[in-house]
Amino acid sequence: MPKVLFFSGQREQVGKIFCEGAPEGFAASWRPHALSDDEKKELLKGVEFLVLHPSAIAGSVLREAGSLRLIQLLSAGYDKMDLALMAELGIPVATNGGANAWAVAEHCIGMLLALYKRLLQCDGSVRAGKWRQNAVTGFNSFEVAEKTVGIIGAGNIGRKVASRLKAFETRILYHDPRPATDIEKELGARRVSLDELLCEADIVTIHTPLLRETRGLIGARELSLMKSTAVLLNTSRGSIVDEQALAGALSEKRIAGVGLDVFDKEPISMDNPLLKYENVLFSPHAAGHSYEAWFRRSSFAWANIRRVASGHPPLSIAVPEEG
Q1: Quick check: helix, strand or coil at residue 173?
Q2: Are 301 and 52 in contact (CB under 8 A)?
Q3: Tens-digit pLDDT profile for residues 79-132
Q4: How far, in Å, CA of 170 to CA of 231, rounded?
Q5: What are the backbone dihedrals phi and psi of residue 288, each rounded to the nearest 5 degrees, phi first?
Q6: CA–CA gap between residue 96 and residue 101 (Å, rounded)
Q7: CATH 3.40.50.720 in the chain, residues?
Q8: Distance (Å, rounded) from C-alpha 169 to C-alpha 156?
Q9: Among the options 107, 175, 207, 285, which is catalytic?
Q10: Range 142-160 burial, b when 16+ CB lie within 10 A, else e
Q11: Is CATH 3.40.50.720 the classification given to domain 3-99+290-309?
């Protein structure tokens, strides 16, 4: 009976959801991700399938896990995995296949609406007994309709954001190394260069993985191309945006608003200059977390594990960067 082990950094309920979804013929168990490397080495003896969330584990642990056939991530991101080592060891690594795309897309749009409609300020004014006052003046809140949306990264999440924002009567631009012909046909989306997207978009939203070429993708030069009325949303990876350059753009009022779910250093340091700006909305790397998504992630993971167990290659393979 194949052994499947899940190292979970989430609530106990997530481990139970995964294990309760185990198909007949598999022995599933979960343990806290915070265990020591020595404890993990011991637990991995005889394990064929390792599931991770968060997507990180020491290479020294994996070098001793001689029976592993697949590492299945419950996240979309794989930037903390040593894929070169995995290739050396002959262990494929699979992402969650877009299972959290619904949650991230909705969170992204929620952040946009909170910024545009000044929802936190409205809530605060009512609670403080100040009614409207300066929370909403009629000149500091906006409509999404007829805005130009620029999507950086047209993968599973970027596509879902595009389809949802199209319903707000927006114009969709996207930047991606590969054409997304489906959203071009269905949504009238147009593929453009990064510079053109930044110059034209009223709303810029990031959905690209963290790779060598995307680290620091949005820096001082790129921020200078954006409209002073534009908002920037990042629910992907913090290191894609140069936080120092972003703080500079905010201090000089060269950007209207920012929504951040991810940060270069997590948890965010309390002396991070971004925290002082009222027009920046924060969430604690939680965009992909939803009740429904945990079942969807687990279902995809088990389908992939069954594929490999039956002799087929896994889906949604994480590919190492070239040289």
Answers
A1: strand
A2: no
A3: 999 999 999 999 999 999 999 999 999 999 999 999 999 999 999 999 999 998
A4: 15
A5: -85, 0
A6: 10
A7: 3-99+290-309, 101-282
A8: 21
A9: 285
A10: bebeebbbbbbbbbbbbbb
A11: yes
Of the candidates 31, 34, 25, 23, which has an alpha carbon nearest to the alpha carbon of residue 5?
A: 31
pLDDT along the chain (323 residues), means of 10: 97 98 98 98 98 97 97 95 95 97 98 98 95 90 98 98 98 98 98 98 98 96 98 98 98 98 97 97 97 98 98 93 59
Asked whether the beta carbons of 10 and 3 are under 8 A apart, the reply is: no
Confidence at residue 322, expressed as pLDDT on a 0 to 100 scale: 59
Q: Which are the contacts of 6, defined by CB distance < 8 A and separation ≥ 6?
A: 15, 18, 19, 28, 29, 30, 31, 50, 51, 52, 53
Reduced to 3 states (helix: H, G, I; strand: E, B; else coil), residue 42 is helix
Catalytic residue among 237, 243, 296, 297: 237
For residue 218, give the DSSP letter.
B
What single-letter amino acid sits at 152?
I
pLDDT tens-digit profile of 137-155? 989 999 999 999 999 999 9
Q: How much is the pLDDT for 319?
A: 84
Q: Catalytic: which of 12, 42, 88, 266? A: 266
Any catalytic annotation for residue 243?
no
CATH of 101-282, one of 3.40.50.2300, 3.30.360.10, 3.40.50.720, 3.90.1570.10: 3.40.50.720
237 is a catalytic site residue: yes
CB 180 within 8 A of CB 191: yes
Based on the residue annotation, tell me whether 285 is a catalytic residue of this protein: yes
The neighbour count for residue 95, using CB atoms within 10 Å, is 25
